[in-house]
Amino acid sequence: MKDNFYIIQNGTLKRKENTVYFTNENIRKIIPIEKIHSVYCLGEISINSKLLTYLSRKNIILHFFNYYGYYTGSFYPRDYLVSGDIIVKQVKHYLDPEERIFIAKEIVSSTIYNILRILEHYRKHNKDIKSEILKIRECDQKINSAKSIEELMQIEGESWRYYYQTFSKILNFFEFQSRVRRPPDNEINCLISFLNSLLYTAVLTELYHTQLNPSVSYLHEPFVRRFSLALDISEMFKPLIVGRCLFNLINKRIIKEENFRKDLNSCLLNDSGKRIVLKEFDGRLSLTVDHPSLKRRVSYKRLFRLEGYKLVKHCIGDTKYKGFRMWW
Exposure check for the chain: N or C terminus, fewer CB within 10 A? Predict the structure, then answer.
């Protein structure tokens, strides 16, 4: 299985013949490009067109993050699995109100199901979160009667709000009151934002290896300058990937106060903190489960791509779409 390659330091990423190097004042590291799935640039990285041409030929995506750890964009190579027929049918399902809301309901229903699965695990371990679980179940019961995408988004937003309310009861360290995004105001919000960005880019990478257009989505409204289908699919995996990474990092004291830095009203990861989070995130993506249909073990990362395949089958009228729900 190919790996993600993370660059935290500042430097230059360049190609010399068929070899890719990362260099700066202190190191000169060869990147084994045949073993690389995607590249994450979290430092200030200089690149050139020769490198991009080579990576495009190898179907490797580059993801860029700024100084504050925010995702800023991706180098997305030319589609190598492009299918005009699939894209037309994908767009038709967006334009058809009934088809769109069917897929959107599956996404929201599956997201809430996975939230409840994670929270039930902690409830069984004596965390007093029963009231929040009941409120999330009430949200779940509203999905079938929802008549619009806006209503579904409200239901999902309400579910996430109750989910975040459990954090003060699940987490053993750091204080958390509410979700604050840009900028994150404490350690927990900082970790959530960074992990959400990592998940989004991981899903985007897997969508590149399908015939779907990542800018045509069903729950999130398609906008310019974002791959909104990656947002749709990420929602269903946040409890499993982001939530479990976060709880492990904090409750097992893998990450600590010294791994953060505070600037005015914001809290950000320093380089040591980024390394810790990336190791935890990458480790979780590499975990495997027995897949009931494929009859073999697949990684969590591969599940993102399989979700894309399920949407393709739905769009071509092969199999009705069923959103990702944890079965193990």
Answer: C
Looking only at the bridges linking them, the beta strands covering 288-291 and 296-299 are antiparallel
d(CA 210, CA 36): 18
| CATH hierarchy code of domain 84-315 | 1.20.120.920
Pick the CATH number of 3-75 from 1.10.530.10, 3.40.50.1000, 3.100.10.20, 3.40.50.720: 3.100.10.20
Q: What would the pLDDT profile of 69-87 be if each residue is shown by its tens digit?
A: 889 999 988 877 778 899 9
Query: Per this entry, what is the length of the chain?
Result: 328
- In angstroms, the Cα distances linking 312 to 4, 90, 207 are 25, 8, 11
CB-CB contact of 93 with 103 (8 Å): yes
Distance CA 193, CA 71 (A): 10
> Is 174 within 8 Å of 250 (Cβ atoms)?
yes
b/e sequence 35-73, b meaning 16+ C-beta within 10 Å: ebbbbbbbbebebeeebbebbbeeebbbbbbeebbebee
pLDDT digits (tens, 9 = 90+) for 101-140: 999 999 999 999 999 999 999 999 999 999 999 999 999 9
